[in-house]
Amino acid sequence: MPVVKYPRAREPLWCEWDRKAQKCGLRHTVYAVNGDQYTGEWLDNLKHGKGTQVWKRTGAIYSGDWKFGKRDGYGSYSIPDPVTKEYKRVYTGWWKNDKKCGHGMTFYPGGGHYEGEWSGGQRSGWGRMYYQDGSIYEGQWLEDRPGGLGMLRLPNENRYEGNWKDGKKHGPGKFFYLDKGQLFEGIWAADIPKCGILIDFGR
């Protein structure tokens, strides 16, 4: 009985090339068309695992965890100083879906820095902000501004303890004038004291 041999079906060349081009596992530096470069781990052609990304346009560097092409996990983000070209850390902490989320620390250009909780790329939750002028705010944050209970200590040691809304003193609070030995206790609205009592102490 004769045996009929059919030619084996070959897959098109583009299928083989595509399979070889799929990035998976640890890879050397991969350059994007716009000049950005990434060195690290991949999964199904997406950055996934540990890796370092350098953006050509800004010179910024992110080094840390990735998940399906987005910054997710723990990592640090740095940018070069325009004058000295040395890298200055901007943010170190947790990320989720390419945005700051969880606990982290940010350093601002003027010299201030924030340490605390983030959500969706904004300061949200509990945190402490050190301002450039020497003031310190410690308390609750909402949508990148003080909101809830918090304390602001000024450079001259005077301080406000109480409620905040949209970054301003709002609601019941106490202002300690330590330089004058006085305490104002009352109600605030949009940074303005509306009513209350002024007490002398420590004299």
TrEMBL record:
Q: Which residues form a coiled coil?
A: none
Q: Which SMART domains match?
A: MORN
Give compartment(s).
Answer: Cytoplasmic vesicle, Secretory vesicle, Acrosome
> Where does the UniProt entry say this protein principally localizes?
cytoplasm
Which GO cellular component terms, listed alphabetically, does the Swiss-Prot or TrEMBL entry include? Answer: acrosomal vesicle
Task: List UniProt keywords, sorted A-Z.
Answer: Cytoplasmic vesicle, Repeat
Q: State the SUPFAM superfamilies in the record.
A: Histone H3 K4-specific methyltransferase SET7/9 N-terminal domain
What exactly does this protein do?
Assembles a suppression complex (suppresome) by tethering SIRT1 and MDM2 to regulate composite modifications of p53/TP53. Confers both deacetylation-mediated functional inactivation, by SIRT1, and ubiquitination-dependent degradation, by MDM2, of p53/TP53, promoting a proliferative and cell survival behaviors. May play a role in the regulation of spermatogenesis.
Q: What is this protein called?
A: MORN repeat-containing protein 3
Native source organism of the sequence: Columbina picui (Picui ground-dove)
